[in-house]
Amino acid sequence: MTGFAEHAWQATAATRAAIHRHPFIAELAAGTLARERFRFYIAQDALYLARFSRALAIAGARAPDAAGLEAFAGWALGAVAVETRLHRQFLAEFGIDPAGLAAAEPAPDCRAYTDFLIATAYHEPWEVTVAALVPCFRIYWDVGCAIAGSAAPDNPYRAWIDTYADPGFGAAVEAILAVADAAAAAASAPLNARMHAAYARATTYEYLFWDGAYRQRAWPDFA
Question: Crossing angle for the helix pair 66-93 and 167-185, nearest 10 degrees?
């Protein structure tokens, strides 16, 4: 019997197809993505990670058992460790000061996505929080694997591609999918519907995050 994760994955097929077609992803895979666009993205992704890991930690604290607490705490620490290494490399390459970045205001898409995740983690049932956190894991794994085979070895963004196509990252994805399936299996029909809604919203935010980076969408200056 197909579980929540697969149903939610199929239900968001149109959004995922739009992600794969997006010029940010296509140009990143080809190695032709403009440096200023990737620079904007990696700075926002570093800001996103700080807030995403906080949402993971909240989910762990609210988990119904010790296994859930341990799993989410591990993912929070793992996300920070793996992606911080990746960010450190690219932030240095693009001349971005991490200390200054930490005090920066997230761009609109980053702010909207992370506010949604943190608000969900604090205020929604734990099962809904799990559903909202899954797309970040699964979509990055999907995109990384999709472009890993065709990307040239000398692609300037090869480190990014390899990070998200790595089998170790895939194992973390499979683990959180299993948690989501188990949570949904024990949930009521109305709660399942809320899980699907949160999953779909997070998937849309994934698209908007890359679109915002490509367009370098910032807060308007009315001065």
Answer: 140
What Å distances lie between residue 99 and 86, 160, 178, CA to CA? 16, 22, 37
Domain map of the chain by residue range? 4-215
Check: pTM over 0.85? Answer yes or no. yes
Fold of 4-215: Heme Oxygenase; Chain A (1.20.910)
The residues, any chain, with a CB within 8 Å of residue 6's CB and separated by 6 or more, are none
8-state DSSP, 12:
T
Q: What is the pLDDT of residues 160-193, one digit of tens each?
A: 999 899 998 898 899 899 999 999 999 999 999 9
From residue 25, give the alpha-carbon distance in Å to each of 41, 68, 85, 130.
12, 33, 21, 26
CA–centroid distance for 206 within its chain: 7
Tell me the C-alpha distance between 43 and 38, whole Å: 8
Q: Which pair of tokens denotes residue 173?
A: 């994805």
